[in-house]
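Lab manual, section 2.4: Encoding a predicted structure.

Procedure: take the sequence of the chain (168 residues), apply the prediction step described in section 2.3, and record the output as structure tokens. A sample record is shown.
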Amino acid sequence: MKNFVILFCLLAFLSIEAQTDNSADCTKVYLIRHAEKDRTDKTNSNPHLNSFGIKRSLKWKGFFKNTDFDVIYSTNYYRTLETIKPFSENGTEIVIYNPSKIDYNEFLLNNKGKTILVVGHSNTIPSFTNGILNKKLYNNIEDNNNSNLYVVNICDGIDPQNSLYFVE
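Recorded output:
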């Protein structure tokens, strides 16, 4: 009986360990809005970052200094590409995506087990987060807010975990 209890405890521990430390089956997605853009020309639909945006992109670089991204997804705008420029020059693959044409199931399937950064806009990042969670949790980001960080962890057999942070 004593051996049975020990065996049972060992199997239970291994089962829990397999569920919690199965990083090869986990996908981690970080999602941010682009940094502050130049608003001097209201007709410019593709502005560059302003000085505050350049500073924020460097802050993102510091924030992510210990994160090795397998791939970075960005919309094809100066402000999104300039936001990731300081920390994407190490050879990380950059994939240009169209927010209106993204298939979230395909995105997750193609990126299973990877660590990913997605950079987009005030309306696309919350909807992207909702899309990969398959739940409507987040609304559009306020126009003056460039500090949201959404983090989604998806592991096989475990409900997705998500968090929203404000990184100033």
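Check your result against the sample. The mean pLDDT is 87.
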